[in-house]
């Protein structure tokens, strides 16, 4: 078998076999196929696409290029959640203890952020002492005993994906549904969960900007998961404005805690309830979505979810006292009011621009070498649909680097579109994708 023939075949829009895809992934991972031939094949895939079966084969080959975690020693159906990311997306911090409090085992491997704000691990590390490094035995024992553990992905998971993504990033071959879906799912499948819930964001602050693309990506990932015998559900949720009010690592931790105390922002609470209900259905802890919602709401109102969060934090070396004393979290030295330049109704908040503003303050990374300021960020006070008068406070910026304030402030104010006519907020959930159907709401 020759890589030349595989490139030629895909160049001519023919279907690749499992053996051909396995050959490419294995040889490229080992450095036996040079970058120039790998990039030629990736460009052929980008232009001529892959069908459903090819995408499953590619995902499986990438998954097997590194360690595949065995979670069979954990009792019950292990359910994982993956978000395609966005601005203010602190969902795992509230959702994992919420679902665990309902009896579903959550064994989650998460990543760091590159871009607008930190990833889940960065946010958790805002908690003093919290460790995302865990030996396999402690990880498994933690889930069996407490129903919850979150750790960092090891460098040995999906080795081919890291190498291929770096090449795609510099050869303009990132934006292909099959390649995106395979990249996400190979890591999720290698992480060992029995069932996967996918939160596919759509809109300005999301990777997929349009609804059609978001549904297409969700369908591709659900097909992969189900094609590899993992029950998988995809949800399409809004990221046209930031999620909740808090953007920035320690600020998002506080908002997640407030949500478990029953004081969360309406959109974030609804998202946690909806995702949580589907996770309970996947874990067979709830018979249907309605029962799942009921269990999730009870876990908040009874205080069980908040107690589970404390256990989770303490078990991973963190200071559980932060739940009742936010001053123990990283705190910015300066808080600045950002005021509205005009009166009217907020018709749009460009989530990506808000994320970039937070990044300028230090809440995100422009390069992987950047060190996060875990205290920096933005707390919004107004959302789409709200009326503001000129001079009303739109947000508070939390910062330590005053020299960055003006640049961040200009980007932030430009993100707000204020009009004379009243507008309605967008819906939060646009649809659900299962192996059998696509439901659009």
TrEMBL record:
PROSITE patterns: THYMID_PHOSPHORYLASE (PS00647)
Family: Belongs to the thymidine/pyrimidine-nucleoside phosphorylase family.
Record has Mitochondrion as a keyword: no
A Pfam family of this chain: Glycos_transf_3
Keyword Transferase: yes
Oligomer and partners: Homodimer.
GO CC terms: cytosol
Record's keyword terms, sorted: Glycosyltransferase, Transferase
Protein's UniProt name: Pyrimidine-nucleoside phosphorylase
Role noted for this protein: Catalyzes phosphorolysis of the pyrimidine nucleosides uridine, thymidine and 2'-deoxyuridine with the formation of the corresponding pyrimidine base and ribose-1-phosphate.
Catalytic activity field: thymidine + phosphate = 2-deoxy-alpha-D-ribose 1-phosphate + thymine; 2'-deoxyuridine + phosphate = 2-deoxy-alpha-D-ribose 1-phosphate + uracil; uridine + phosphate = alpha-D-ribose 1-phosphate + uracil
Enzyme nomenclature, EC number: 2.4.2.2
One GO BP: pyrimidine nucleobase metabolic process
Recorded GO MF terms: 1,4-alpha-oligoglucan phosphorylase activity; thymidine phosphorylase activity
Organism: Romboutsia lituseburensis DSM 797
Enzyme class name: transferase
Domain Pyrimidine nucleoside phosphorylase C-terminal: from-to ranges: 345-419
Domain of life: Bacteria
């Amino acid at each position: 078998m020759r890589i030349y023939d595989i490139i030629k075949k895909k160049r001519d829009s023919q279907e690749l076999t499992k053996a051909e895809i396995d050959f490419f992934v294995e040889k490229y991972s080992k450095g036996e196929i040079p970058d120039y031939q790998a990039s030629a094949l990736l460009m052929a895939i980008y232009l001529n696409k892959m069908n459903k079966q090819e995408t499953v084969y590619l995902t499986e080959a990438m998954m097997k290029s590194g360690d595949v975690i065995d979670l069979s020693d954990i009792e019950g159906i292990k359910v994982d959640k993956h978000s395609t990311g966005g601005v203010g997306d602190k969902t795992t911090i509230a959702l994992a203890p919420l679902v665990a409090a309902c009896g579903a085992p959550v064994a989650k491997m998460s990543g760091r952020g590159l871009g607008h704000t930190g990833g889940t691990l960065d946010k958790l590390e805002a908690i003093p002492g919290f460790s995302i490094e865990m030996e396999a035995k402690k990880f498994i024992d933690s889930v069996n005993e407490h129903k919850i553990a979150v750790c960092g992905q090891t460098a040995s998971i999906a080795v081919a994906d890291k190498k291929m993504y770096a090449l795609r990033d510099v050869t303009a071959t990132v934006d292909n549904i099959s390649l995106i879906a395979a990249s996400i799912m190979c890591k999720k499948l290698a992480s060992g969960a029995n069932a996967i819930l996918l939160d596919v964001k759509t809109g300005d602050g999301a990777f997929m900007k349009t609804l059609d693309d978001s549904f297409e990506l969700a369908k591709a990932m659900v097909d992969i998961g189900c094609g590899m015998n993992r029950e998988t559900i995809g949800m399409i949720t809004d990221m046209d404005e930031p999620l909740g009010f808090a953007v920035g690592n320690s600020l998002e931790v506080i908002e997640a805690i407030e949500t478990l105390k029953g004081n969360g922002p309406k959109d974030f609470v609804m998202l946690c309830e909806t995702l949580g209900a589907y996770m309970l259905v996947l874990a067979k802890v709830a018979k249907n979505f309605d029962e799942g919602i009921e269990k999730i709401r009870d876990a908040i109102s009874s205080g069980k979810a908040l107690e589970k969060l404390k256990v989770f934090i303490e078990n991973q070396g963190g200071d559980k006292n932060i739940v009742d004393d936010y001053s123990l979290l990283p705190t910015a030295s300066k808080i600045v009011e950002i005021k509205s330049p005009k009166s009217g109704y907020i018709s749009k908040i460009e989530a990506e621009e808000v994320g970039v503003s937070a990044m300028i303050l230090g809440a995100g990374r422009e390069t992987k070498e950047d060190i996060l300021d875990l205290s920096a960020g933005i707390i919004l006070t107004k959302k789409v649909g709200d009326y503001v008068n000129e001079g009303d406070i739109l947000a508070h910026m939390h910062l330590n680097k005053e020299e960055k304030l003006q640049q961040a402030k200009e980007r932030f104010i430009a993100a707000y579109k204020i009009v004379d006519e009243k507008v309605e907020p967008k819906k939060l959930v646009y649809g659900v994708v299962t192996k059998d159907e696509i439901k659009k709401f």
